[in-house]
Amino acid sequence: MAYGQTGTGKTYTLGRLGEEDTANRGTMVRAMEDILAEVSPEIDSVLVSYLQVVVRRSRCNHYLSELHKTLLDSCISQFTATRDLNCGLANLRYMVA
Ligand SMILES: Nc1ncnc2c1ncn2[C@@H]1O[C@H](COP(=O)(O)OP(=O)(O)OP(=O)(O)O)[C@@H](O)[C@H]1O
Question: Cross-referenced PROSITE patterns, in alphabetical order (predicted)?
Answer without folding.
Answer: KINESIN_MOTOR_2
